[in-house]
Design brief:
The complex is a heterodimer of chains A (119) and B (290).
Chain A (H helix, E strand, L loop, with lengths): L2 H44 L2 E11 L12 E11 L24 E5 L8
Antiparallel strand pairs in A: 1-2, 1-3
Chain B lengths: L11 H18 L27 H11 L4 H14 L2 H5 L2 H9 L16 H17 L7 H4 L1 H19 L9 H14 L5 H6 L1 H9 L5 E5 L9 H5 L27 E5 L23
Antiparallel strand pairs in B: 1-2
The chains are: A alpha+beta (119), B mainly alpha (290).
Chain lengths: 119, 290
Amino acid sequence: MTTRGRATTSSSKAARQHAGWSVVAAAVVIAGAALLVHGAAFRVATVVIEREKQVQVEAPPETGFPPFQGPTTRTITVKEFVDVNRPEPYLTRVAALGGLERMPSGRILEKDVESACPT
Amino acid sequence: MARAPLRKSPSKAVRWRPWVQAAFLAVWLGPFGLRLLNVCGPVFHCYACPLAAFSCPVGVMAQFSAMHLFPFAAVGTLLVVGGLVGGFVCGWACPFGFFQDLLAKIPTRKLRLPPWTGHFRYVVLLATVIAVPFFFGKDSPLFICSICPAGATEASLPAMVRQAATGGWDAVVWPNAIKLTLLGLLIAAVFVKTRPWCTLLCPLGAIFGACNRFAVATMKVDQAACTSCGACDRMCRYGVRPQKDINDPLCIRCMECTRCGAISVGTVFGRPSAGAPPETAPEPQTPPDE
């Protein structure tokens, strides 16, 4: 094969690879958008009522989250989410959106205490 | 063959990069009230609130792994952003990358590590973000949020300052020892290695770096204009060899290599770079005799 022939072959191979990556890019973006919409739809379907509420939480030591390290008790403002499928407020379901599950093992002590979120 | 010109000063876009990073910092950390608390930003924008409606995508993935749930919204965000811009997020939007860039302004001699060290980022991703939370839960000392130096910088230290300012030193709640130690080591490493967190450890950089290969916004080498002089390899501070692989997963798209006229930013849907890479480096062209 001549030098010109090799160049043409390499060029067409590069073009095919380029087209392949274009398809991959489009597929990844579309798949990501679908997951994003699914996640958002899950939130809309799950969390139907939300209102501000203030609760007091106790965090265990060494949770890794600065405001809650050490044997401390904080009062914070959270949003109360209510699931239509359950009769009582369903806080942990919000974990599916990366929210309340970040309270690693803290627990709600009492509700309706006046203060604000430390962060 | 026309030789690509080598600019002495960075291009206009590169000169704007610190300002773009600073603008994103204002968004992620919210000094003007722009903090995005209810969306999953594609960077480390930790605010360490256990009741936050959302957090950085790495924190969300780790939390979900601990709950044995699939984080649809976080993964979707990463795929969309990674598929659109890939590593540009690291170089232009990440506040922790900006922090390392600022520290690196202090002139010191930087080490160049072999490119394979970048694969350690995938180990960090699989271990501390996926496996450890999945098998050992959130209370493991190696849970990513418990050791993340980005979280220490963006949330722990500001919280400590605030606590000290409002309640004195007695009111300060110290982060755990592993987190503080890692942060100290990382700050020390910034003076001997460019962006050590991004190039060696960052799980988010691992994801976006992998997207470099197919992201819509990409970089290209015009092989017809490239003379294989190696200038781009020497310009890159992250161990990437642009002439060989401009879409290397280590590339954070700082665009310093665009000083060479043969390298440009484009889209994956545009025309491929012309010609094939030369198999051997040609002799440098000399200017014609007067």
